Amino acid sequence: MRRFNEIWQREHAACDREHRPYALLMIDMDKLKDINDDFGHDGGNSALMLVAQCLQRSIRGTDFAARFGGDEFAVLLPGASADVAEAVVKRVRHNVYKTTLDLRSRMIRCSVSIGVANYPKDGRDMRELLSIADGNMYRDKELRRAPGTQAKA
Hints:
With 153 residues, the chain is of the alpha+beta class. The protein is built from 4 helices and 6 strands. The strands form 2 sheets. The protein has a 4-stranded antiparallel sheet with strand order 2-3-1-6, with helices on both faces. Strands 4-5 form a two-stranded antiparallel sheet. The longest helix has 27 residues, at 32-58. The protein is elongated, with a radius of gyration of 16 Å.
């Protein structure tokens, strides 16, 4: 994460100087606690690795992804417009959902909630952008939750 923050600071300064956009994605793996409860932490680690691999397949070589902590990931898309960011969001969702995980002879399908913040449209301060992307991620999680179900990590 430290390396991600260094890269983000450098890219933020360059985009600010050159008047270029970029996007920040915050990604939360849905129902990791359920996987850990049902299959142990090895199962949860396998699910996290699946999401990380799907992220790497979904982004450009010029983009940066890092595990943000727990079941969250951050992705920086330098030079990306809001339209490019939305295309990446769709690609990430699709790649994660279509890739199944075999845990104890059960095929598990994972999903993610994703929030986006676009620089400079959504804000010019890095903390503000992180807060916006995080808020949008939790809003996405709420909107995609089945009606009548309780919130879970």
